[in-house]
């Protein structure tokens, strides 16, 4: 059984030819109203999804993730007061199989915020951000390290005056951040 948002007779014929029956989302909703079923919530230890790791810290493997896993991460974010709001715009650029991105999307959807997805081309990342104007964008160390390396390479390639101005601005920003942390 396959679902498709918009179906044509051509789509249905192709599915029949392959031995499949094709349903639109509207078809499934009608069946649900016609044959209501009791809600059976999952057990916390039931597998919610699986994720294949890239092998960054070892060999690639499939990890089974339970509903408890997802809720624990979501609740930890709430406990740390990491929130988003209905007027936020989430910028999704991490691969959708990435568990951190999945948790973020659940939080965004749960709070009614908007989300936008990058075009998939690293060279268009800045263009995507300018078009979307996100208010939240989760990051992972690998991406932050790349950004840092690129900025620092630009600083090293600049004139001594620009390097000195950068170092002064950077030191001022660090002081400001340290003061904020002391106040909270």
Order of helices and strands: EHEHEEHEHEHHH
Through-space gap between termini: 54 Å
Spatial strand arrangement across the major sheet: 1-2
Rg computed from alpha carbons, rounded to a whole number of angstroms:
23 Å
Mean pLDDT, as a whole number? 85
Architecture overview:
The protein is α/β, with parallel strands linked by helices and 184 residues long. The protein is elongated, with a radius of gyration of 23 Å. The strands form three sheets. It has a two-stranded parallel sheet with strand order 1-2. Helix 4 links the parallel strand 5 and strand 6. The chain has helices at 9-17, 25-34, 67-79, 99-110, 125-132, 141-156, 160-183, and strands spanning 2-4, 22-24, 47-52, 62-66, 89-92, 114-117. It is 50% helix and 14% strand.
Strand and helix map with partners:
Layout: E1 2-4, H1 9-17, E2 22-24, H2 25-34, E3 47-52, E4 62-66, H3 67-79, E5 89-92, H4 99-110, E6 114-117, H5 125-132, H6 141-156, H7 160-183
Parallel strand pairs: 1-2, 5-6
Antiparallel strand pairs: 3-4
Tag the structure with descriptive keywords.
184 residues, alpha/beta, two-stranded parallel sheet, 14% strand
Could you provide a short overview of the structure?
Helices cover 50% and strands 14% of the residues. It is α/β, with parallel strands linked by helices and 184 residues long. It has a two-stranded parallel ribbon with strand order 1-2.
């Amino acid at each position: 059984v396959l679902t498709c948002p918009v179906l044509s007779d051509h789509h249905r014929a192709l599915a029949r030819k392959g031995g499949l029956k094709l349903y639109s989302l509207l078809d499934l909703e009608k069946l649900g109203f016609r044959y209501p079923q009791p809600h059976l919530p999952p057990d916390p230890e039931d597998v919610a999804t699986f994720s294949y790791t890239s092998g960054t810290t070892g060999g690639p493997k499939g990890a089974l993730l339970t509903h408890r896993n997802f809720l624990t991460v979501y609740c930890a974010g709430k406990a740390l007061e990491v929130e988003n709001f209905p007027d936020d715009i989430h910028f999704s650029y991490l691969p959708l199989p990435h568990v951190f991105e999945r948790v973020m999307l659940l939080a965004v959807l749960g709070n009614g915020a908007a989300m936008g997805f990058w075009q998939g081309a690293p060279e268009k990342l800045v263009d995507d951000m300018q078009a979307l104007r996100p208010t939240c964008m989760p990051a992972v160390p690998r991406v932050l390290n790349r950004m840092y390396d690129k900025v620092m390479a630009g600083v090293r390639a600049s004139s001594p005056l620009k390097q000195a101005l950068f170092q002064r601005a950077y030191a001022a920003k660090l002081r400001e951040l340290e003061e904020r942390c002391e106040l909270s």
